[in-house]
Design a protein that fits this description.
This protein is mainly alpha-helical. About 85% of the residues lie in helices and about 0% in strands. The longest helix has 29 residues. The model has no long low-confidence stretch (mean pLDDT about 85).
Length: about 120
């Protein structure tokens, strides 16, 4: 039962990765930039599935960190764009609304890459 679950998990993640790569080949340049973190996440997910399937648990932290790093690239990219647009439109009060998202992103970054366990 354990192996069947991981085979299904691996197949579904490969299908998602294939769809993302196909969409990227047809997309406009700005869409390709937006899709990059999702493709990296999907690759990390496929790698994680293969590692679990092959029972090589020592490689799991590598794929977890790749997954979190690609998520954080997207997270901070959206925040930078959001803050840029807010500053450009002189709506400085909206910058205060972005502070919890900056704090959450920095906390995820700290817990994943800096904090000693």
């Amino acid at each position: 039962m354990f192996k069947i679950f991981h085979v299904i998990h691996l197949i579904s993640s490969l299908i998602i990765l294939t769809i993302l790569i196909y969409i990227q080949t047809l997309a406009a340049p700005i869409t390709k930039i937006v899709l990059q973190p999702f493709i990296i996440c999907a690759l990390a997910f496929v790698g994680k599935s293969i590692v679990i399937f092959l029972n090589k648990q020592e490689y799991l932290p590598i794929f977890n960190k790749i997954y979190v790093l690609s998520f954080l690239i997207y997270w901070f990219g959206i925040l930078i764009f959001w803050c840029y647009e807010v500053i450009k439109s002189h709506e400085y009060l909206a910058l205060l609304f972005s502070l919890p998202f900056w704090i959450c992103g920095l906390f995820i970054l700290y817990c994943t890459f800096i904090k000693k366990k």
